[in-house]
Amino acid sequence: MKFLVVSGLSGAGKSQVATLLEDMGYFCVDNMPVQLIPRFAELCMASEGKYDRVALVTDVRSNRSFDELFRALGELSELACGYQILFVEATPEIIMQRYKATRRRHPLAVDGQPMEDTVAHEFHMLEPVRSQADYIVNTSVMTTNQLRDHLRDLFSDGPQARVMVVMVGSFGFKYGVPRDSDLVFDVRFLPNPFHVYELRPLTGNDEEVFSYVNRFPETQEFFSLLKGLITFLLPQYIEEGKTSLVISIGCTGGRHRSVAIARMLYEYVGEIGYRATLTHRDIARG
């Protein structure tokens, strides 16, 4: 039996994840009291295969300390019920935008407390759960289709189940390193198009900036070394059983150099036969 515990930040998309898992054949239960999880697992194990793929969603609405969650997971281990934890997150900025757009109240909101403090408090509260997660999915820049494809890569039983998806992304260091990064490469040593007047308002997706970044010898040497490293690493991660790899490319603001290098790496990963996605977290932030 596959037993998946889905947790994560409020507003990060746990309910959407549950819906997509249902489409993949999982029996999903949202917000079950954690004290009932071991008993529910026993029923599923006794169902003779009727409930062989189960996902339980738990969050701060029902469990403010998460001590009981860890006790329940300990009981699952005693029952020889193998389980995995999927942690769903998004950046604080995205979470606040989502709550503002839906006009819903954050479950930890306190009258008079700024929203950013509430979100930061939940990040801190859930860190023990995140640290034990088998999978971490950041939905900040994912469309529904991208999220569906990523979950299929992680949990599908089909022939693509062990194929790793490489998630290449650019970011700006002044906005923080993406929390879900597996590998981080700093390209702030490359000549900066920001200091070229006519290039400053453009991004690494514009050919003028892309060509500017690529014309320097240090860019060519760096990318040659990067290709060699990635070519070596990807088969090693697959052999280890890793199903997703997040590679983050950072420059100062996340608009020029990191975008151009991320584009190059995304294209290269596809050329050598791996499935890849490309996102630019800070490209619109200036």
Notes on the protein architecture:
With 286 residues, this protein is of the alpha/beta class. The chain is built from nine helices and nine strands. The chain has helices spanning 14-23, 37-45, 67-78, 92-102, 115-131, 144-155, 207-214, 217-240, 257-271; strands spanning 2-8, 27-30, 53-57, 83-89, 135-138, 165-172, 183-186, 244-251, 275-280. The protein has a five-stranded parallel β-sheet, sandwiched between helices. Strand 2, helix 2 and strand 3 form a beta-alpha-beta unit. The model has no long low-confidence stretch (mean pLDDT 88).
Question: What features would you highlight for this structure?
Answer:
Rossmann fold, 9 helices, alpha/beta, 19% strand, single chain, 9 strands, 4-stranded parallel sheet, 286 residues
Kindly estimate the percentage of residues that lie in beta strands according to DSSP.
15-25%
**CATH class annotation of the largest domain:** Alpha Beta
CATH topology of the largest domain: Rossmann fold
Q: What's the overall average pLDDT, rounded?
A: 88
What's the tally of helices? 9
Give a short overview.
The chain contains 9 helices and 9 strands.
Strand and helix map with partners:
Elements: E1 2-8, H1 14-23, E2 27-30, H2 37-45, E3 53-57, H3 67-78, E4 83-89, H4 92-102, H5 115-131, E5 135-138, H6 144-155, E6 165-172, E7 183-186, H7 207-214, H8 217-240, E8 244-251, H9 257-271, E9 275-280
Parallel strand pairs: 1-3, 1-4, 2-3, 4-5, 6-8, 6-9, 7-8
Helix pairs in contact: 1-6, 4-5, 7-9, 8-9
